[in-house]
Design goal:
With 737 residues, the chain is an alpha+beta fold. Helix content is 37%, strand content 13%. It folds into 5 domains: 19-90, no CATH class; 94-172; 187-266, no CATH class; 283-486, 2-Layer Sandwich (Nucleotidyltransferase, domain 5); 493-594, no CATH class. A hairpin with a 6-residue loop joins strand 4 and strand 5.
């Protein structure tokens, strides 16, 4: 502490240029005399000129000699050694520079001054709730040429740095990179922060929060030791400090330690060249992904169909989507085949409004020269490779673990998610967010599959007519110019169907058509043609008795059950047979159909269980066996003739059951009983034996030489006898012979 008691009006000798002192623990620096007793005193922390309040007027004025001497007289001023490090704001005396030099030093400084001046002129202060809106309004009107609008927190920092009513250019010059910033962390804390940042990169499961917690714990342990030694307690670092240190040492080698070589290669290594094309359909990239939404398949019950898979094919030259498939089962070779099928045919299913305004949208289709894909199982399958070879399409594979090589199709998926999927009901988030928001996407899934497909098609149409930053024009316009200049080839869809549809052998074809997967496929002309061609070669064993039938080979598309292909044995060609339930089967995948069948089964179980139905059938069998126990079919017919013959119900008597006591020999006495008849009435009737010889071996009924016996009228009429149905097999053999 220096002796500063001096005569009134004269400053102490200790007050020299750049001398520092404290007033109420606030560090100040004396920069010189401004004239008229005004003093240039700087607040070291903020770098602003000090203004004091006049007790008589209540207005703020520049600190003057009278105020300073009065403060000294009260003992509120403490001189500080001049060796104290200067604050970065006053390291260079910017006030000694002229206006042009300050502008050259920081071109943004005039914009800061102008912004603060306009805020002050409108009476807007730093704690104004609408400060952010005022900043954007003024900046967009006056200072857009200086770049982006500053953040509200940044402007509040500027307001603290200078006098808001009289902002000084020197106070608002950025000092970033011009002076050394003071270290705010203790060296021991800095060492802990650096250690925990390295610790974060040593294990895959460690998060920023884990490194932050470990650093706080380490500082706490250090403080225990320092307290024991009587040292000052250290302040723990913030989470942001840990995050910046972690990101500051991020490198490829750190990624290898934490995530492995494959992940580091994908994240750090540049793409191996670029895939470019000069004309439409020269190269088509194909890929699939799981969509972040849940659709419904049953309009009546709103049953969720889980998350759908989307397969997309995009033209590299024009960025047009030439084909896409939505399915609810993991992608297979059939999915690729269906995407090729849609890729190779014009889009006739678009709405008339789109076709009328943009006819080119219907023509975004054709045969690609090169199909570029990753190494997924559905793309490297032998069936897929052979189909592409037969169609004359070259196959190219992306390097393993290098998704950047097919960036065109990969970048489309985030675009679809951002502009469509996130706006849909049933959109799925990560599990943590779902728990926080108490959301269940299956409950919110109110879209039908048809609605989801329509929305995706609408989005693709809009995408085709929007400007694409990668090619500088609309994809549809680029496609139109390309096909006018180079033309396009189309796929033979019928050949593709035969090559790609799945095969089923020994399916039964009858006059009623073909039953397959619970659906009926029939067309009168096609069925008649196939029966005439396939029936002559059918074996006798596999034929049916009551109708023309034969076993045939069929092909079906698991991505669309609207029709099947049936093979003609004579011509070896395939005939298309449609499903009778076209409204149901058109566009329906096998997976969806099986789900509907399962749900229908579950709905039936709500009435009664399968176990209950099986038990009911078993009880019926027991009732039959108890009614006529141990009898063959012939015996049951005899009972039927006996019970339903000429004997009237009035003449029938219930049998009486009698018991007798057993003897030691195990035999009881004979009970008296009434005979049913005194003598047999059919004693003279010849016994009717089964046919033998040629008839028994399958011969004609005409060869039976037995005489037809007269029926005893007392036994009953012909109507009372049980008669078996006609033998269709024998009739067929008779006619066929």
């Amino acid at each position: 502490m220096h002796d500063i008691n001096q005569p009134t009006g004269v400053l102490p000798d200790a007050f020299t240029i750049n001398s520092t002192f404290k007033i109420d623990d606030q560090l100040m620096m004396y920069k010189g005399d401004l004239g008229d007793d005004a003093l240039n005193i700087i607040d070291v922390k903020s770098g602003k000129m000090l203004y004091v309040t006049n007790p008589e007027t209540g207005l703020k004025t520049v600190a003057n000699r009278v105020w300073l001497l009065h403060t000294i007289a009260k003992g509120a001023l403490e001189m500080v050694s001049s060796d104290v490090s200067k604050h970065p704001r006053v390291a260079d005396d910017l006030r000694e520079l002229d206006l042009e030099e300050l502008k050259a030093l920081d071109p943004m400084a005039p914009a800061r001054v102008g912004l603060l001046f306009l805020l002050a002129s409108e009476g807007i202060v730093s704690n104004d709730p609408a400060l952010g809106g005022h900043i954007k309004r003024i900046w967009s009107a006056k200072f857009t040429s200086y770049g982006l609008c500053p953040a509200t927190s940044t402007v509040r920092t500027w307001l603290r740095r200078t006098d808001p009513e009289r902002p000084q250019l020197a106070d608002l010059v950025s000092m970033t990179g011009r002076v050394d910033r003071p270290k705010r962390l203790d060296p021991e804390v800095t060492r802990i922060v650096e250690d925990k940042a390295v610790w974060y990169w040593l294990d895959r499961g460690r998060k920023i929060e884990d490194a932050f917690s470990a650093a706080v714990a380490a500082v706490k342990e250090t403080n225990i030791e320092r307290k024991a030694k009587g040292l000052e307690v250290l302040k723990a670092p913030s989470r942001e400090t840990i995050r910046r240190e972690v990101r500051g040492i991020e490198s490829r080698s750190m990624w290898v330690q934490k995530f492995g070589e494959t992940a580091a290669k994908r994240h750090w290594d540049a793409a191996r060249g670029s895939i470019t094309a000069k004309r439409a359909l020269e190269i088509v990239q194909i890929d699939d992904t799981v969509l972040d939404c849940i659709a419904c398949v049953d309009a009546e019950h709103r049953l969720p169909a889980n998350r759908p898979y989307l397969c997309i094919a995009i033209c590299v030259a024009t960025r047009c989507i030439v084909g896409w498939v939505l399915s609810f089962s993991p992608p297979t070779a059939s999915t690729v085949a269906e995407c090729l099928r849609r890729m190779g045919t014009d889009k006739f299913d678009l709405s008339p409004e789109w076709i009328e305004r943009y006819p080119v949208l219907r023509e975004i289709a054709g045969k690609p020269s090169v199909l570029y894909s990753d190494n997924g199982k559905n793309y490297i399958a032998i069936s897929t490779v052979e189909v592409l070879r037969d169609l004359g399409i070259t196959v190219r594979r992306a390097p393993i673990g290098a998704p950047k090589s097919k960036a065109n199709v990969e970048s489309f998926f985030p675009t679809l998610k951002k502009w469509l999927l996130e706006k849909l009901p049933g959109h799925t988030l990560d599990p943590k967010t779902l728990r926080e928001l108490n959301l269940n996407p299956e409950v919110r899934a109110v879209l039908l599959i048809e609605e989801l497909e329509a929305l995706i098609q609408e989005f693709i149409n809009t995408y085709h007519i929007s400007l694409h930053s990668g090619i500088g024009t609309q994809p549809a316009a680029a496609w139109l110019r390309s096909i006018k200049a180079h033309g396009r080839l189309m796929l033979d869809v019928r050949k593709l169907n035969i090559l790609t549809w799945l095969t089923e052998h020994n399916r039964r074809l009858t006059t009623g058509g073909i039953r397959f997967k619970g659906l009926t496929y029939r067309s009168t002309r096609e069925v008649n043609e196939l029966l005439e061609a396939n029936l002559p070669g059918e074996t006798m064993k596999s034929r049916l008795k009551g109708t023309a039938a034969c076993n045939v080979q069929i092909k079906y598309n698991p991505e669309n059950l609207r029709s099947i292909l049936v093979r003609n044995r004579q011509t070896a060609a395939y005939v298309e047979v449609p499903c009778l339930q076209q409204r149901y089967a058109d566009g329906l995948t096998l997976h969806q159909h099986e789900q509907l069948q399962e749900w229908a089964k579950n709905r039936n179980l709500e009435f009664n269980s399968e176990e209950e139905r099986i038990l009911a059938r078993h009880n019926l069998n027991l009732f039959i066996e108890a009614t006529i126990p141990g009898m063959t079919g012939r015996q049951r017919r005899a009972v039927a003739r006996f019970t339903e013959g000429s004997i009237s119900k009035a003449e029938r008597h219930e049998a009486e059951i009698a018991h007798t006591e057993a003897t030691s020999s195990g035999m009881g006495p004979v009970l008296e009983q009434d005979d049913a008849a005194a003598e047999r009435t059919d004693a003279e009737t010849p016994i009717c034996m089964p046919a033998s010889g040629k008839v028994a071996q399958g011969g004609s009924h005409d060869s039976d030489t037995r005489e037809i016996q007269d029926v005893d009228p007392d036994f009953g009429s012909d109507d009372d006898l049980w008669q078996s149905p006609p033998d269709d097999d024998l009739n067929f053999e008779e006619d066929y012979a």
